[in-house]
Hints:
This protein is mainly beta. It has one helix spanning about 30; strands spanning about 1-5, 10, 15-25, 35-40, 50-55, 60, 70-75, 80-85, 95-100, 105-110, 110-115.
Amino acid sequence: VQLVESGGGLAQPGGSLRLSCAASGVSVFSFVTYTISWYRQAPGNERELVEQIGSSGGNTNYADSVKGRFTISRDNAKKTVFLQMNSLKSEDTAVYYCSASRLPKRSWGQGTQVTVSS
């Protein structure tokens, strides 16, 4: 499965962005079996798991710093996963990556830059 992220850019503190992760090279029937995750990596930091959504649509928020502000969702018919980011903070600045996993394989997108600054 190939993944392409989009929707990153510059946002002001308190603003919003919506990231998209579009999958290709896989049927809808197969896409629904993948767990999709959003990670982020800021300069000098390790890659951090932000949110994850399972094949059934259940989601698990892993980063305490984004609870109540970020929401992950998926549109299986469009083979796309979204990350709605509200109330952005400067510390959200990072490259955001989506990842698709169906054990034992994992695929990564190329990342999209999110910069939060006034």
